Cystatin-like (Gadus morhua), 134 residues
Amino acid sequence: MIWKTLLIVAVFAVATDVAVMALKMVGGYSDATVTDTGVQDALRYAVVRHNAGTNDMYLRQVGRVISVQKQVVSGVNYKFVVEMGQTACRKTGVESNCPVRGDEAAAKPYQCTFVVYKHWSGTVSLTSQTCPTV
């Protein structure tokens, strides 16, 4: 009798684990680390595209990464939620070190969500950008 109970519990535990793993695997986003090279490249790409699309005379940079996720498809989707802020560098300048301004009033921070798609062939595109109008 005890072995039947143990068998039922074991089967239930295995079935539950398999179901949970299947939910995580099937095409969904999973958390990623900011230090991953692919993540960093995708975020740099998103920031460059964002700056190209703004009418601001100053560059915007990431002040804080709120979340990073990636999704494996026929390549990789990288989804970022970040806080952007204004720098003191003009878009037309040649400066390479352009941190977000330290004063919050000058930085004018705002939150953006970017999705960058990197195809297995190497092509990259910004497929989604949700930010307030700047």
